[in-house]
Amino acid sequence: MTAMLDSSATTRPVSRQTFDEVIVPTYAPAAMILVRGKGLELWDQDDKRYLDFTSGIAVSALGHCPDAVVHALTEQAHKVWHLSNAYTNEQVLRLGLALTEATFADRAFFCNSGAEANEAALKLARKYGHEKFGAHKSRIVSCLSSFHGRTLFTVSVGGQPKYTEGFEPLPPNIDHIKYNDIESARAAIGDDVCAVIVEPIQGEGGVIPGDTAFLKELRALCDKTGALLIFDEVQSGVGRTGALYAYMNHGVTPDILTSAKALGNGYPIGAMLTTNDIAKHFGVGSHGTTYGGNPLAATVALKVIETVNQPAFLARVREAADKIVANLRKLKADYPEVFGEPRNAGLLIGLPLADAYKGRAKDFTKAAEALGLMLLVAGPDVIRMAPALVVTDEQIAEADALLRKAIDAVLAPASAK
């Protein structure tokens, strides 16, 4: 017999131990529990302040609880939340117009996450290949060390075996090439390929910017073979690189683009953007989602796009990125035995560890966290920064000071020997 809900469950104190007791252990979160935030600042249950240079893994692009977005969401919450896709709504139509007017795309499909956006893109590419060329045109080419989501399809397309182990058998007809390797691409992309999917900058793979020459060659190979070029801009999109979408920095236009993360500033939404000619292969009933494009999510995303897609805003993103990278170059010069050369595309920034410290990225991020600075890793060898796009010069200076203290804390045991 099912027990009745104990009313105290909604009010009694919870701690990090509660996570271990009731949550499926797919994550190992930090010890603190964050309870409120504003801008780039967060506070935990003990009212300790943190400077957030993660933005929820490049999600909270406008910071925590931005006033304009809170106002728009609250106003919509008093109107209508959900209708299902048997009906449409004004907000999703306005969002569709905003995105198609701002990009190469004619059509938008809305869902709830980056993985779902990539799933839709890959399914559409297969459908397009089958209907236009025949069932033989079904192979998908991706890059080693890529990341495209956690569904079985997208994790198989991602080029990281650690995410597929134990989930076999995996979907077939998926091959992987070396990132930024033109010859590897030429060898793999043949007439049976329906899609090539690539991140303009690899995030989870180590914050590695794509070479423009490599991305242009992918475009040329897709044109030659009739394959579709998919840009996964889940992490790089919506202003993160200093352009609305990173493809704009390279002069390479994809056939399909996927967006999520910053699009909703923390409210779950994903989008797949494409052209009329490709979109027509997704007819009524061929794909769908219950929540995708609901009025709440669309309202938030529209406010985010309106805010980010302004020349002055994007120019400030580039300026802030230059300041952070300049600080990291000084840091590298001061600690040459610890760090390699920083790399970035806008405010997606990686600080690789030198050989002597490889595998210890989390040691540095944990030391920073103890001092009140939240950072990310991109694998075991790279410290990753993805601050909100509204980061100030004062916050950049504070982060630099805290990171230096964290480095000294990590190195202290070694110097004491």
Q: What is the strand and helix layout of this fold?
A:
Elements: H1 16-22, E1 34-38, E2 41-44, E3 49-52, H2 55-58, H3 67-77, H4 90-102, E4 107-111, H5 114-133, E5 139-143, H6 152-157, E6 174-177, H7 182-188, E7 193-198, E8 201-202, E9 208-209, H8 212-225, E10 228-232, H9 247-250, E11 256-259, E12 270-274, H10 276-279, H11 295-308, H12 311-334, E13 343-345, E14 348-352, H13 361-370, E15 373-374, E16 376-377, E17 382-385, H14 393-416
Parallel strand pairs: 3-15, 5-6, 5-7, 7-10, 10-11
Antiparallel strand pairs: 1-2, 2-3, 4-12, 8-9, 11-12, 13-14, 14-17, 16-17
Write a structural description.
By secondary structure, the chain is of the alpha/beta class. The mean pLDDT is 95. 45% of the residues are buried. A hairpin with a 2-residue loop joins strand 1 and strand 2. Helix content is 39%, strand content 16%. The protein folds into two domains: 7-65 and 311-416, Aspartate Aminotransferase, domain 1 (Alpha-Beta Complex); 68-308, Aspartate Aminotransferase, domain 2, CATH 3.40.640.10. The chain has a seven-stranded mixed beta sheet, with helices on both faces. Strands 1-2-3-15 form a four-stranded mixed beta sheet. The chain contains 14 helices and 17 strands. Its cofactor is pyridoxal 5'-phosphate. Its main location: cytoplasm.
